[in-house]
Design goal:
single chain; about 90 residues; mainly alpha; Arc Repressor Mutant, subunit A; two-stranded antiparallel ribbon; 4 helices; about 45% helix
């Protein structure tokens, strides 16, 4: 197996004792953003696995889009990232 050189850590430890690695990140070609993939990207940035700039470039995200994911997780948890929950949680944010 060939390991590419990357800037930054290859893995980070999460507060629950688990680990998040670059291999856990969604592929850069992701088109369908389910809640778990969004949450993984938010965790990766929050715990220093990748930078915000790297996440935005890698996944073609705007800072506003990432910020909305981060805010939803901070306020309501990972379940707020589900597309079907948008109306439910949006009413609390206004």
């Amino acid at each position: 197996m060939h390991i590419r050189k990357v800037r930054g850590p290859r893995t980070v430890q999460l507060p629950d004792g688990g680990y998040l690695s670059r291999g856990d990140l969604p592929p850069p070609t992701t088109k369908r953003w389910v809640a778990s993939r969004k949450a993984t990207v938010v965790k990766a940035v929050r715990f220093g696995l990748i930078s915000l700039e790297e996440a935005c470039n890698l996944y073609d995200l705007t800072r506003d889009e990432y910020s909305s994911w981060q805010t939803a997780v901070a306020r309501h948890g990972e379940s707020a990232l589900r597309a079907t929950a948008l109306k439910k949680y949006r009413q609390f944010d206004q």
